[in-house]
Amino acid sequence: MAIEKAQPHVARLVVDARLAGHSGIGTYIAEVLPRVLPGLAEWKPLVLAARGKRDAIAALSGPGAEVRVWNVAPLSARDLWAAPPGIGPGDLVWTPHFNVPLRSRCALAVTLHDVLPLTSPALAGRGRSAAVHAWLRAIRHRARAVLCVSEFTQAEAVRLGGLASDRIIVAPLGADRAWFEAGAGNVQPAPATAAPTMIFVGLMKPHKNLLRLLRAFIRVRDRIPHRLVLVAKHRNLRNVDRAALALAASMPDRVELVEDLPFPDLVRRVSQAQFAVQPSLHEGFGLPALEAMAAGVPVLASNAGALPEVCGDAAVYCDPRSEDEIARCLLLLANDDALRQRLSAAGRLRAQGFTWEACAHTTQNALRDALQFHAAMRANG
Description:
Layout: E1 13-16, H1 23-36, E2 46-49, H2 54-61, E3 66-69, E4 92-95, E5 107-112, H3 116-119, H4 121-124, H5 128-142, E6 143-148, H6 151-161, E7 168-170, H7 177-183, E8 197-203, H8 210-220, E9 227-233, H9 242-249, E10 255-258, H10 263-272, E11 275-278, H11 287-294, E12 299-302, H12 307-311, E13 316-318, H13 323-335, H14 337-351, H15 356-379
Parallel strand pairs: 1-2, 1-4, 2-3, 4-5, 5-6, 6-7, 8-9, 8-11, 9-10, 11-12, 12-13
Helix pairs in contact: 1-2, 1-15, 7-10, 7-11, 8-9, 8-13, 11-14
């Protein structure tokens, strides 16, 4: 009886999409995957989904991709040593963060959003920097492509991660069209009788600096009618800023704490705010600030991380470590109608330079080049 020969493994692109639904990285996956994968169909993409997310990831990935569940929690201790399922010789694994597979020796492509555990270990939470160093060592040795979402993140990856700057491609994030439509007046305004609001969107983690924001708000709340709206995820979250959470909960008459909002409601609440606040101590990009600008909402941003790179001259800036300065800027934006009008127009204009189409185009080209380079290296031994 003839013995059938095993078919050779066809090298393919493997995408780790387990962080879909996680804050800004989840937005990145949702926006980039459907724009990138169709143009890489020849590499027969295999997309790895977290448990319970297979159908959602399949919808994002399109009919040309295979989707499998990888039942290992991303960024967990087990994630350090688990090997992704379905990987064969010659495959290229693209991860949308620095949690690349360490046990496998596969070639890598990676998108870096920040290196906060190295920049500010105390803010990132205990025990994170050692894991990030291990991931970055793997990236240095095995990455065929490294994408960073900002020049700031690129510089930090070079300075603290030892990556070569000439191997990094900067691919800034974008704002969904819904934000621009809100900026064009396609969202119902807040009721005329409602108190004006200032809004923060993000995670309730120490590097978001909500404790100082709340203390600054306490200093000025008797001089302005505004409510502070915090759209701040905090349940089932590592390294929650519990002091900020307690202070926010102590002021229900002036501070509204929202755990999460469906996307249309988020767009509506942000676009109805008089201004947005992003006083972070560190941002690898600052997507909520960009989205607010696209919606025509003035922004108060810190002068830290990538926020000045993203916001340019379309924001008011503060020193995030100074409660006095945050309070002064809150009063300035609350009381200066002309300033808010100028920032609204400038923000909409600046946000037009950041699109998901451009981000996906750069990403797709980088991945194609990496796949072709990797294939050529394997062919030449």
